[in-house]
Design goal:
single chain, 268 residues, Rossmann fold, seven-stranded mixed β-sheet, globular
Length: 268
């Protein structure tokens, strides 16, 4: 199975998955990761701007932009999951946003159609990522802004790194190798961003690391991470052991806060 097909199946079966996970917790500034992205985009938006949200899911981010009165002339969302698009269209029928089924590698829009492109927890999933970046570059107007949030590096030495290692060790051996086209390029730091985005085509405007503070409720932390990709492959014993490890991390004041990287770049 191709990795893109895996993502499509997961989101067809779990519409709103990303929103349910990431809307529960807040960063050090008291904002959700969605709100952090909203405020970043607000800095460059005006009443003549048009935004494309790639991997828009059930449409929550575009709805959040509208609710926050970020001034866009047009809002457009694209997602690989038909079920997510149907839910977005149904849930946001009174919104100005338009939702379309599509693929980041062949976006169904014309060249230089948008002043802004946004992505929430999506860019790091695309393989080959360079092809996705080139397609985003194509649909952005000259001087247009790409803003995104992805998983970052665990720089604070909290429990996230330990938890990640435990989970990877318990995944069925060889199962990941059955997914053709899974992401190969790391994208979790400013160094990664400057490596992947050609300096002849892009100007890095801002880059900021932060953490999603997951608190100390073991059940909530467990459910947050359990919604991650590939956890469905874990059996009951593995899940119970992971939950016990989360409980131990919390008892040691090493809550596995989720690291994030928030970036914006301008098309030259």
């Amino acid at each position: 199975m191709k990795f893109t097909q895996y993502l499509e199946r997961v989101h067809d079966e779990n519409s709103g998955l990303t929103f349910r996970c990431f809307s529960k917790f807040y960063t050090e500034t008291g904002l959700t990761s969605y709100e952090e992205l909203v405020e970043l985009i607000r800095e460059s938006a005006d009443g003549k701007s048009q935004i494309l949200d790639v991997a828009c899911g059930e449409g929550f981010f575009l709805a959040a932009l509208e609710k926050a009165s970020v001034p866009f002339l047009a809002y457009h969302g694209i997602d690989i999951s038909k079920n997510e698009i149907e839910e977005a269209t149904r849930n946001h029928s009174k919104s100005k946003a338009v939702f379309t089924h599509g693929n980041v590698f062949a976006l169904p829009v014309g060249d230089e159609s948008f002043t802004h492109v946004s992505m929430h927890m999506a860019l790091m999933l695309f393989e080959p990522i360079e092809r996705a970046i080139n397609e985003i570059h194509r649909v952005l107007k000259k001087g247009g802004i790409l803003s995104f949030v992805v998983g970052g590096m665990d720089s604070s030495n909290n429990g996230y790194t330990q938890l990640s290692k435990i989970v990877r060790s318990k995944l069925p051996k060889g199962r990941l190798s059955t997914l053709d086209g899974k992401p190969q390029e790391a994208l979790s730091s400013e160094t990664d961003v400057t490596r992947l985005f050609d300096a002849n085509d892009w100007e890095l405007l801002s880059s900021r690391t932060m953490e999603l503070l997951v608190g100390n409720d073991v059940d909530e932390i467990f459910e947050f991470y359990r919604a991650s990709y590939f956890w469905e492959w874990l059996g009951v014993n593995e899940l119970n052991n992971i939950k016990k490890h989360i409980k131990w991390l919390v008892s040691q004041s090493k809550e596995p806060n989720f690291p994030l990287l928030l970036c914006s770049l301008k098309k030259k």
